[in-house]
Amino acid sequence: MEADATLTQQLRTTMPLGETLGMDVVAAAPDEVHLRLEWSEGLCTAAGVIHGGVLMALADSGGGLCAFLNLPEGATGTATIESKTNFFRAVRDGHVDAISRPLHVGRTTIVVETDLRDAEGKHVARVTQTQAVLGT
User: Fold this and answer.
1) What are phi and psi of 128, to 5 degrees?
2) What's 105's domain CATH number?
C-alpha cells in the first residue's frame, strides 16, 4: 500500500517528529491506523539496525493517532501514560509497518496495541500503550 500524501502531511505538520523520522501515513481510521517508516542509515545503531527507540516512537505515534481518532466527545487530546514494548527481530533494510488498533476505548483512558512488521511481513515488535484522555 502507498502512503496517503494528505494524511502524511497532516501528521508531519501536527507532530514534527514524524517529519524528522520520515513517517508516512498509509491509512487512518478509528479502528486501525497504519504508519510506515522506511529504513535509513540515519535511524540506525551499529550494524545498520533501526534503533529500538525509533521503532518505539513509530509505535507511539501510531497509537497516539489511533487514540486521538477514538476520543470521546468533548475531549481535546491524548497523551501516552504507559507503554510496553516486546522486540522480536531487528530491521536492517526495507521498511517497518506499524498497525495500531484500539483494545479499550474509555472515558478517561484508551488502550492501543501496535504491531510492527518488516517489509517481509515478519513480526518485529508489539507495543501496548495506555493513552490518557485530555480535556474532559
Assistant:
1) -115, 130
2) 3.10.129.10
Measure the CA–CA gap between 86 and 88, rounded to whole angstroms: 7
Q: Mean pLDDT, 10 residues at a time, over the chain (136 residues)?
A: 91 94 97 98 96 98 97 96 98 98 98 98 98 93
Helices (H), the chain: 5-14, 16-21, 52-69
Residue 49 one-letter amino acid: V
Nearest to 114 by CA among 132, 97, 131, 126: 126
Which residue range is the domain that position 61 belongs to? 5-134
Handedness of CA 112, 123, 62, 97 (dihedral sign): negative
Instruction: Tell me the C-alpha distance between 103 and 100, whole Å.
Output: 10
Q: Into how many domains does the chain fold?
A: 1
